[in-house]
Amino acid sequence: MVSILKPFFFRMRLRRLTLIAQKTQWTTTSTETTKNVAVSKNNAITEKYAQKLKEKAEREGYASIDELKAKILKRHHRQTTPDLPAQVKSLDKILRMEKILSQDMETICQLWTEYHAAKIACISDTLSADAYKKLFKRGQEFPMFVIPLTHPTGLEFYILQFQYHQCFFTSLLEYKTFAAESQPLLVLTYYIDLMDTKGVVLMHGEIGKPNILSKENAKYLVRWLREFYLDGEDKCEDNKSKWNLVVKFNREPNNFEYSELVNVIKEEK
């Protein structure tokens, strides 16, 4: 335990920026076909809600829908997600923001889910503004944790690490084998562009090697990330133990018990 966790804890911190520079290239691999699909869907939505947009523009004192969109876009440019590496696509490179910003939160979440549904190497998630603020705060204070995946041959642990508005998942076994050359298999990017105006944060997840980490297992890792990091102090004692494990892993890594973590997950499956 000591020989694995302690060096990993410090060496991964030193390699944060290197990993970001190397692996966030995954988020730039969306094709033109995907972009066209998103545009087509958004055009259909705009036609459907054209009358509502016109009424909204008139109600707020704008001469046209285009003037309303321009105002919304100007507000959006002041709110784009900061602290992301240059290689990561901004949200307006993935979605047509002039279309999206005119929709309500429910529609935006539905579009985001549909956009990722058919992608083999991508997953998505949506969080309320309050939930993400809690996740971000805790992720910066306690940036590392482990989550076990069950395989036919046994358990495989993945270690996660938060870096501002991103989170990296790496196989603990791969790290033990390749040390500094280990590669994250899943990179999550949280877009806060719509957090203030729509009350929602959009998560885009890139799976580096789908043949090693399936989409289903990637979703499983994200599910338990949320379970542990969004566990609140106002819940029952059983739920509190999940957050306490995160704190213990970061503050007392030498005393962290993997069996306790596995038991918590088994009890809630």
From TrEMBL:
One Pfam family this sequence matches: ATP11
Keywords per UniProt: Mitochondrion, Transit peptide
Presence of the UniProt keyword Zinc-finger in the record: no
Any one GO CC term of the record: mitochondrion
Example GO biological process: mitochondrial proton-transporting ATP synthase complex assembly
Main location: mitochondrion
Location(s) in or outside the cell: Mitochondrion
Superkingdom of origin: Eukaryota
Keyword Mitochondrion listed: yes
PANTHER family: ATP SYNTHASE MITOCHONDRIAL F1 COMPLEX ASSEMBLY FACTOR 1, CHAPERONE ATP11
Similarity comment text for this entry: Belongs to the ATP11 family.
Protein name, per record: 679_t:CDS:1
Naturally occurring in which organism (per UniProt): Ambispora gerdemannii
